Amino acid sequence: MGKRVPHHDGSPLYVSTQTPELGDVVRVRVRVPSDFGPVHSIRTRSNPDHEPHFTDATLVASTGGWDWWEAPLRVENPVHGYRFLFVLEDGSTGWLGSSGYSLIETRDSEDFKFVSYPAPPPWAKNTVMYQIFPDRFARSSEADGRELPIWAEPAEWTDEPIHIGPSTARQFYGGDLLGIEQKLDHLVDLGVTMVYLTPVFPAHSNHRYDALSFTTVDPLLGGDDALISLVDAAHARGLSVIGDLTSNHSGDAHEWFTSSHLTPGAPESEFYYWLDPEQKSYVSWLGVPSLPKFNWAAPELRRRFIEGEHSVVAKWLKAPYNFDGWRIDVANMTGRYLDQDLNAEVRQTIRKTMIDVNPDTILLGESTNDALGDFEGDGWHGAMTYANFTRPIWGWLSKRVEKSWFFGLPYGTIPSYTGLDVFEAHQRFAAGFPWRVRLHNMNALDTHDTARFRTSALDGAVPVAFGMSVTLPGIPVVFAGDEFGLVGDDGEHSRSPMPWDERDASASTIDLYTQLIHLRRDHVALNEGGIRWLHAGEDVLVYVREHADECVLVVAARAAFDVEVELDGHPELLWGETDATDSRLWGDGPSFTVWRLPGIVLPSF
């Protein structure tokens, strides 16, 4: 990546507090290579109330070939942007923002950001998530005695998922909540810390995103008592559990919809978008008639669903259910239709309700593309998104498979990325988030909505890809079955039942995931530390997560590499097999290697 340049990322090394309030004076630091060139001055440039304001920085430390400058900033807006202006002794200038160092003025959207909204729960930045699709995870003996609804098409646990045609949403394996509870020890052994359950409410499909009620747990899963038992058992093992809500739509069998469909004047009529006076036709998610879209201009919908202690949002966070938070489905579309945009009001209301009921809860929102605009800390703590991690990693570490699936593109069009492309995509879509939002974005290789990464992965690439999931800023994600080496051609095909009888045969893959998950959990730099990229080449990426207590150096390679770097100390091998000195890294690929370096010791703020 060439000559070292100034660096700042919003992490605790660079910012005096991660929880500022309006009016607080926060001290920010920027590090400058000692060989960068004689610096005349450094100033911060903020934009409070959209009017530029500058403060002067002073040199506070010189260590390890870096000069550290510090400046005070007053937080004057809930999202307060700032950047650094450099003036060199030769009269030249430069700007440092979230997208990097630039010789020309950068856009406000590229500023670093303070966020004065209520902070995420402290435990969330140390999270490793495990996603469970309940119908396919584990089936208890109690499932045998349950009468199946008319929509369900029963399947044997070893049957292949039907992923094309009308039976896709009807194929029913009968996984239930007691089955999940009986397998919690597997999750503890794996090392994950959070269970994310896709919807548990009654519905007319196996995925349950077409809820017919939000006030009870599906009897096919064991009902309310089974959820209470599962969450209690998870908490006893140190696991948190979050649920899944569809804020964008209900099912067409939902009690609110059936009471208003073809019934003008019904109290629930204002909950949906009707296209004719008879309330026969309506707006739905992507035109799918079974998923009618909510109209969040309706005060009563807000009261029942998201606002106050008696709402749906609140109910499942309180005893006896005690969810630890929510993942919100289709968060990006919620409240948006034609000229109406109520997304901010909805997400802020959801979070206010959560704070009032239990502030020690997390709120994650699905946003499948560029998530930056909605994720500045006023509601969602982090994004379930694919642009900043998933898609770049797939592009770099996938084979050119003729009939491959790739996020809505025509089949066979997985892009071919270099490592530099991965770096640039990650910077473009991740660096603009406020730092504490960035720590809570989901680093998912795959989910229930995608093909499995392993399906088209290069030979030997899984350790590289999952290694990056656990070492880049964000929440690592394991979709149930990844640790067994499952494959799937698309989202529906990837929802395979867990092959518990093949656990021994999958021992090496399970061990790989276990080792990398514990690597993440054991090192504070990987949970809280900043990130600085050292090298991006066609076949190798090198970055370091930096913290006062330790630094962690990461090398992800898809082919043989030999690169020169400048390290602050001699590397101590933590995981992997490639070689390093304090100025050179080399080895074969695909490979993933992690070293420990000394922490960065600076004067206190």
From TrEMBL:
Residues 131-520 form the Glycosyl hydrolase family 13 catalytic domain. It comes from the Bacteria. The keyword Hydrolase applies. Pfam families: Alpha-amylase. InterPro entries: GH, GH13_cat_dom, Glyco_hydro_13_lg-like_dom, Ig-like_fold, Ig_E-set. Keywords: Glycosidase, Hydrolase. GO terms for molecular function: hydrolase activity, hydrolyzing O-glycosyl compounds. The keyword Hydrolase applies. GO terms for biological process: carbohydrate metabolic process. PANTHER family: ALPHA-AMYLASE FAMILY MEMBER, MALTODEXTRIN GLUCOSIDASE. This is Glycoside hydrolase family 13 protein.
